[in-house]
Amino acid sequence: MTRDTLFLLPPGFEDDGRREYCPECGEVWGLLNYFPALKETVDIVYVPIAHPRAPITDLLGEGSFNAPTLALADGTGTPAGVGFKTANGRKYIDSVPGLAALWAARFGTPARRGS
Fold first, then answer.
1. pLDDT tens digits for 49-68?
2. DSSP structure class, residue 36
3. Which long-range contacts (CB under 8 A, 24 or more apart) does 21-30 make?
4. How many Cα atoms within 13 Å fall on the side-chain side of residue 13?
5. What residue segments make up the domains of the chain, in order of their start?
6. How far apart are CA 99 and CA 6, in angstroms?
7. How far is CA 53 from CA 49, 82, 85, in A?
8. Is this structure's pTM higher than 0.90?
9. Distance between start and end Cα atoms, the chain
10. What is the pLDDT of residues 81-112, one digit of tens each?
11. Contact, 78 vs 84, CB < 8 A?
């Protein structure tokens, strides 16, 4: 994998008998729209609401993975102070504060308020 892969739920999906959206994925889309150059640094893959989320588990192995999740490209370092997890030998970040911290450290975007 040569670029980071960002896994998101689609903007609208069926769950609990109604059409819904994921607020965390919406926040990430907000960041990508505030700072459009970020979109050029990731491959975006939509995943289903139901587990297992095959596109994520294909890359990270078995587990119950959150969306949004950013799987870091091969050989990518992580800046100091940015927390990440590891699965199947690959680093990933599965929280909006973590994504915001990574992008702020890498690309100079503003820090997320409250983080």
1. 999 999 999 999 998 889 99
2. G
3. 22/67, 22/68, 24/66, 24/67, 24/68, 24/95, 24/96, 25/67, 25/68, 27/96, 28/68, 28/96, 28/99
4. 16
5. 4-107
6. 10
7. 7, 25, 18
8. yes
9. 29
10. 899 999 999 999 999 999 999 999 999 999 99
11. yes
